[in-house]
Amino acid sequence: MIEKEIVVKNPHGLHARPAAVFVQKAAAFPCKITISKNGKEVDAKSILAVMSLGIEPNEAILLRADGEGEEEALIELAKICEDTEM
């Protein structure tokens, strides 16, 4: 298992479209992926779970991945969170 703390730079946080893109990318990986914010951890492959965290711009989240492709998964998901153009 690996984890990475990320500050969400997307101007919309992880709401609506950015959350959908994030979940689609997470679902493409076979490993288990979770997001934690303020002690609440959810499945990164569930749009409702991700949106329930209410992740705003400039908030820190913790991504965890466990299993095949975990390193690549965190790299790709971090890119989405740090994208300021989406």
UniProtKB/TrEMBL annotation:
CDD domains: PTS-HPr_like (cd00367). Keywords: Cytoplasm, Phosphotransferase system, Transferase. One of its GO terms (biological process) is phosphoenolpyruvate-dependent sugar phosphotransferase system. InterPro entries: HPr, HPr-like, HPr-like_sf, PTS_HPr_His_P_site, PTS_HPr_Ser_P_site. It comes from the Bacteria. GO terms for molecular function: transferase activity. It holds the Pfam family PTS-HPr. Its main location: cytoplasm. Residues 1-86 form the HPr domain. GO terms for cellular component: cytoplasm. It is found in: Cytoplasm. Gene3D superfamilies: HPr-like (3.30.1340.10). NCBIfam families: PTS_HPr_family. This is Phosphotransferase system HPr (HPr) family protein. The lineage of its organism: Bacteria, Thermotogati, Synergistota, Synergistia, Synergistales.
